[in-house]
């Protein structure tokens, strides 16, 4: 007892030393009843738009941010979509959080939000347990009076206020830290008309690079500069030039944080749910709500209280002022609940402090000890060991408080790590007691770079320690590296706090791109090492990338934030030639991010290109007859740096078969190599990885041919896979009931051998996809009785001779979901292509009628008027070819609208003869070599003879891609042509990138550009020439800084025409071109400018 009394006395003295000072501070306030509101602090929250590509799914959040009305780019796929889960971690002592469980409040029920009576305000006390700060109400702290003596009214107040409130349109041009690239709308309001300062939320001002404009109530638009965003709390400032306003004078709204009171009637005025101006009524119900949590990996405010009201704000209202009846802002709208009509408002105490410093052009100091505190009520403090004597002293010193601050967590390796523990009750800082967040934050901010003495009560004793106050801005990233189409930045305090990890443990992957994506280091990963170089920050990461070799494969050590205890090492393919490699740094004065090119990885030297041995491995005898073909199997990987040609994914992998080892020719399905734009690698014998190039993409059949350099192998190349000559020549084909062996591989390269039989031979059916992409047409395939689960392979006889390919065929179901099916294709389909490549080294000319053919039964043909003689002829042909029933072919649809065949053949035509021979097999007409064919068709019960010109098909499909303002533009490829009735032009938008002008101003994938500034553009050459001319003419204008807006006329596939106004941004979205180049290692070259 003696020791306990002595310890209690020491703690009481510590608190008592600061009690008089605290009381003096309360008395010094002009309005003592407002002291706890001034201490409420600030809060924040951020929301990220979803893109893409492969990262873990975001957990459902109890609160949603009102931030933005996000506009998704239907074809702009971010290669790694954002995904993380939630956990609380740590925070700075100066930015303190309340972490207790929130009770259900009266205003969260479905009640009206009109002004409450005095009785109602008293009734509210029943619903609030005494575990919060005392909240002044309209009964004990009357509103400030209007000095004019007029009776206050909402009508003139709102009329004045709306002249200060702006609608904000913003583009986050790069994923960065907690933010993902995208387009959104929000709200802000002028707080300094002379200096042009606009207050909004931190998640609107954005920590990453943005381009933003503000639209005033008279629809005047001004450019915004994001000049400040708080590292923790949800507020920031834009700046605009007041001289840009020509038709109105901006007015400002006064910030009055001390006027906030429970029961106050308020109006939230802003861009709610994307509307230009909405006015929502409400009543302040709480001043001490815990800062809302939006999920780990998201931007979350902490170490502060929030206000709450039942005003039901939604997307776009972030940054709206919360006004009292006199037109003063008492809070800043920040977020809302997804389960109730509740909105969360940020107190303005620290906002006022930051605004005064910014007005004087001074930096805003922010300090932290990387510890998160929470407000704990006295009943819980007693259970933590707080003595009655200390509680008595605290209640006397702070009569309005119903609790004290306690440590929730301390971040590993931070200033408070090992010095403060969870559950420590804060008694004093530098001899002064603090029970509210704002006052404590002010004390910490004033000691950046210095130490402070902190006294806490831990268990049954008082403890005192010294903590170094760290600069919070130093652990808030302001630079990033663009690498391989992705973005990495320093691991921020925000992200580290969410997952309870230390700051500085690696670089954060904000967007993986195709290079980091090749190692599965998706968004939300932290990269610790690249090669043999540690990467604690972006500077070290840039040095590590420069030390690599272009075209090489390097190990990457990283971990996913959801599982920081599980480190991974994966192999990354180094391919930096597709994208810019540069570092961006934010200019704190203007908010503009300036770029600096970084040194690229150098090509591999000759000594690094020495041939490598790839010994073949025989399979056990139990897997016969696979040994005869197994040596010809290779593993093919394809990575797409851009989502062109209708792609929705970027990584593909499957088996390949060597068809000519001396020339390095490999055949695979088009589910493995779907397009020509990308990096291809071939792995031989599971030991040697060789770069390859796309040689041919068959435009109708489901196979592609790639080529590697066999000189890179030490020894003989893999053998050509053996084929059955009769099947290869087309004399025989797979039929129902044939016995075959499936020799295939699984995802881990394990061989699969299975004896089975052909179950059916049918036409391959694939659907038109959205977005349009290659589909297999006009070919027959086989299905097997017992199909193994595998990636693909070959069908062979019991002697090991190949009679067919076992391939994956991609399509979509009726709901638009991607599907794949395994089918067998006749080996004879390869012969024309392989023979031409062996003879000339080039792909053969491929021609087509550009029609989609489908079988028709004789009964249906008879109903369409086919004569009995023709039916008898078809039956005779079927009997000769051992078919059960005669089959005819008819035109199911056209595959291109502007070809000669499209003007001669009609849907429903039954094909009877081809160059004088009966039509009995689709292979006769799928691909032809002649420039025209003679056809006899049945149309409207009459037989007619037609000479139909054929169309040459491009074996590479796409040979050029133009990037402009975030839109990837190309010539319409074959899959697009079959989905339109008329081709508007040859300038087709294949993809738009998130956060780009194209994404923001309405350019969408699937549109055609037909005019630019009133000038017709029908080809890519005309499009590029027009853009060059406009840029040159603009630069000739006096005082011109570049083209700002361009009128673009577009047409969609329904042939509906629109005119869009596009704001050109060559800083973040410089133009460039990709062109096919056989001499380049990847087969493509990049032209930096148009």
Number of alpha- plus pi-helical segments: 22
Category by helix and strand content: alpha+beta
Query: Would you count the extended β strands for me?
Result: 62
Give the overall average pLDDT: 83
How far is the N terminus from the C terminus?
A: 84 Å
Q: Output the radius of gyration.
A: 35 Å
**What level of helicity do the residues show?**
10-25%
Indicate the overall shape: elongated
Instruction: Provide the low-confidence segments as ranges.
Output: 1-149, 1036-1043
The share of residues in extended strands comes to 25-35%
> What does the main sheet amount to?
9 strands, antiparallel
Explain what the structure shows.
The protein has 1090 residues and is an alpha+beta fold. The strands form 14 sheets. Strands 21, 22, 23, 24, 25, 27, 28, 29 and 30 form a 9-stranded antiparallel β-sheet that branches. A 6-stranded antiparallel beta barrel has the order 8-9-10-13-12-11. A hairpin with a 5-residue loop joins β44 (802-812) and β45. α1 (2-28) packs parallel to α8. The protein is elongated. It starts with a helix and ends with a strand. Residues 1-149 and 1036-1043 have low confidence and may be disordered.
């Amino acid at each position: 007892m003696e020791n306990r009394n002595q310890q209690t006395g020491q703690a009481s003295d510590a608190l008592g030393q600061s009690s008089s000072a605290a009381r003096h501070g309360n008395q010094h306030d002009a309005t003592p009843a407002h002291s706890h509101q001034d201490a409420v602090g600030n809060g924040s929250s951020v929301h990220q738009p979803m893109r893409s590509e492969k990262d873990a799914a975001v957990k459902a959040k109890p609160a949603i941010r009102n931030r933005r009305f996000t506009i998704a780019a239907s074809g702009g796929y971010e290669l790694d979509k954002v995904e993380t889960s939630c956990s609380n971690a740590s925070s700075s002592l100066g930015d303190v959080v309340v972490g207790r469980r929130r009770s259900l409040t009266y205003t969260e029920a479905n009640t009206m939000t009109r002004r409450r009576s005095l009785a109602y305000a008293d009734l509210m006390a029943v619903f609030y347990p005494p575990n919060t700060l005392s909240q002044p109400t309209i009964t004990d702290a009357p509103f400030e009076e209007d000095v004019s003596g007029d009776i206050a009214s909402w009508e003139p107040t709102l009329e004045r206020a709306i002249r200060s409130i702006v609608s904000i349109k913003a583009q986050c041009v790069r994923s960065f830290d907690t933010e993902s690239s995208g387009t959104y709308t929000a709200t802000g309001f002028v707080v300094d008309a002379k200096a042009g300062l606009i207050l909004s939320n931190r998640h609107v001002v954005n920590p990453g690079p943005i381009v933003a404009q503000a639209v005033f109530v008279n629809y005047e638009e001004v450019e915004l500069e994001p000049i400040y965003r708080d590292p923790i709390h949800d507020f920031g400032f834009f700046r605009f030039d007041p001289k840009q306003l020509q038709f109105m004078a901006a007015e400002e709204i006064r910030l009055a944080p001390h006027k906030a009171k429970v029961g106050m009637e308020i109006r939230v005025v802003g861009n709610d749910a994307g509307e230009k101006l909405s006015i929502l009524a409400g009543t302040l119900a709480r001043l001490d709500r815990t800062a809302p949590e939006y999920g780990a990996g998201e931007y979350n405010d902490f170490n502060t209280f929030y206000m709450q009201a039942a005003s039901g704000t939604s997307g776009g209202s972030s940054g709206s002022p919360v006004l009292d009846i006199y037109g003063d802002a008492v809070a800043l709208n920040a977020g809302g609940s997804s389960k109730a009509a509740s909105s969360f408002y940020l107190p303005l105490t620290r906002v006022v402090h930051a605004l005064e410093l910014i007005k004087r052009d001074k930096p805003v100091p922010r300090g932290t000890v990387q510890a998160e505190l929470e407000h704990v009520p006295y009943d819980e403090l007693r259970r933590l060991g707080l003595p009655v004597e200390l509680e008595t002293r605290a209640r006397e010193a702070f009569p309005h408080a119903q609790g004290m601050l306690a440590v929730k967590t301390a971040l590993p390796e931070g200033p408070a790590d090992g010095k403060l523990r969870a559950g420590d009750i804060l008694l004093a800082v530098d001899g002064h007691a603090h029970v509210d967040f704002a006052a404590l934050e002010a004390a910490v901010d004033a000691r950046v770079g210095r130490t402070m003495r902190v006294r806490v009560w831990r268990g049954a004793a008082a403890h005192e320690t010294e903590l170094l106050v760290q600069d919070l801005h130093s652990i808030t990233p302001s630079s990033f590296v663009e690498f391989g189409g992705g973005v990495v930045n320093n691991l921020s305090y925000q992200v580290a706090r969410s997952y309870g990890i230390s700051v500085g443990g690696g670089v954060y992957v904000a967007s993986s791109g195709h290079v980091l994506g090749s190692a599965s280091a998706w968004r939300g990963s932290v990269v610790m090492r690249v090669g043999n170089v540690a990467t604690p920050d972006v500077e070290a990461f840039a040095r590590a990338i420069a030390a690599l070799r272009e075209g090489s494969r390097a190990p990457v050590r990283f971990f996913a934030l959801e599982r920081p205890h599980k480190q991974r090492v994966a192999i990354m393919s180094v391919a930096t030639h597709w994208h810019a490699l540069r570092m961006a740094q934010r200019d704190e004065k203007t908010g503009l991010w300036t770029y600096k090119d970084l040194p690229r990885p150098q090509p591999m030297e000759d000594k690094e290109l020495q041939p490598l041995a790839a010994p073949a491995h025989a399979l056990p005898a139990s897997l016969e007859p696979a040994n005869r073909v197994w040596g010809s199997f290779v593993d093919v990987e394809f990575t797409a740096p851009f989502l062109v040609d209708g792609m929705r994914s970027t990584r593909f992998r499957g088996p390949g078969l060597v068809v000519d080892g001396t020339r390095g020719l490999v055949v695979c399905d088009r589910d493995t190599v779907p397009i020509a734009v990308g990096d291809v690698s071939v792995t031989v014998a599971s030991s040697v990885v060789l770069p390859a190039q796309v040689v041919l993409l068959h435009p109708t059949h489901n196979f592609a041919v790639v080529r590697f350099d066999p000189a890179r192998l030490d020894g003989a190349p893999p053998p050509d896979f053996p084929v059955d000559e009769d099947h290869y020549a087309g004399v025989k084909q797979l039929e129902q009931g044939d016995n075959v062996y499936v020799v295939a591989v699984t995802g881990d390269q394990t061989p699969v051998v299975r004896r089975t039989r052909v179950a059916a031979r049918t036409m391959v059916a694939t659907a038109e996809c959205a977005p349009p992409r290659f589909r297999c047409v006009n070919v027959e395939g086989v299905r097997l009785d017992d199909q193994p689960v595998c990636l693909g392979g070959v069908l062979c006889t019991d002697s090991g001779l190949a009679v067919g390919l076992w391939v994956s065929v991609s399509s979509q179901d009726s709901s638009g979901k991607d599907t794949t099916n395994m089918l067998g294709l006749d080996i004879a389909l390869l012969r024309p292509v392989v023979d031409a490549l062996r003879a000339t080294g080039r792909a053969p000319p491929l021609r087509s009628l550009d029609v989609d053919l489908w079988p028709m039964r004789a009964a249906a043909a008879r109903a369409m008027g086919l004569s009995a003689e023709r039916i008898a002829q078809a039956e005779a042909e079927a009997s000769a070819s051992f078919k059960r029933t005669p089959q005819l072919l008819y035109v199911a649809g056209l595959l291109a609208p502007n070809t000669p065949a499209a003007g001669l053949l009609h849907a429903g035509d039954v094909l009877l003869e081809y160059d004088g021979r009966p039509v009995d097999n689709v292979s006769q007409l799928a691909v032809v070599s002649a420039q025209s064919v003679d056809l006899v068709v049945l149309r409207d019960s009459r037989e007619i003879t037609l000479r139909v010109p054929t169309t040459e098909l491009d074996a590479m499909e796409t040979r050029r891609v133009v990037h402009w303002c975030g839109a990837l533009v190309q010539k319409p490829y074959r899959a697009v042509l079959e989905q339109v009735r008329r081709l508007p032009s040859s300038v087709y938008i294949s993809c738009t990138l998130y956060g780009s002008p194209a994404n923001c101003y309405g350019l969408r994938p699937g549109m055609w550009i037909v005019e630019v500034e009133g000038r017709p553009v029908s080809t890519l050459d005309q499009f590029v020439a027009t853009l060059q001319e406009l840029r040159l003419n603009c630069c000739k204008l006096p005082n011109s800084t570049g083209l700002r807006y361009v009128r673009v006329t577009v047409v969609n596939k329904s042939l509906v025409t629109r005119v869009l106004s596009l704001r050109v941004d060559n800083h973040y979205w410089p133009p460039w071109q990709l062109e096919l180049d056989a001499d380049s290692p990847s087969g493509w070259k990049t032209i930096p400018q148009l």
